Amino acid sequence: MLEYVALAILLFVAVVLFYGIIAIHDIPYEIAKHRHHPHQDAIHVAGWISLLTLHVIWPFLWIWATLYRSDRGWGFQDGRDSRQHIEALEQQLAQLNQRLLQLEQPPQESTTPETGVRD
Length: 119
Known about the structure:
It is a single chain. This protein is mainly alpha-helical. The chain has one domain (2-99). Helix content is 66%, strand content 0%. The protein contains five helices and no strands. The model has no long low-confidence stretch (mean pLDDT 89).
């Protein structure tokens, strides 16, 4: 009787490991599907291929799937359009020009009150 219990536990562990590995390798695909990634199918296929490559590419699939977000694209944008960036740069340039003009102005001559001599 004990042998049958051990065999059942062994089969249960084997099945859980088999389906667990498959479920883990589908995580990048599920992330890509949730984020409406344009390369969902490629990530899904690469997840299956990573089973054959001893899981070497799986972390890269995770990164690839998480880089894209449907609201801002690949994550390299901050939500502002190019016009707002240009306006911010123009404002920064004007401030820098004003500071440069202040630094380049010759110092104003001042007289000392005791002697009346100019510096």
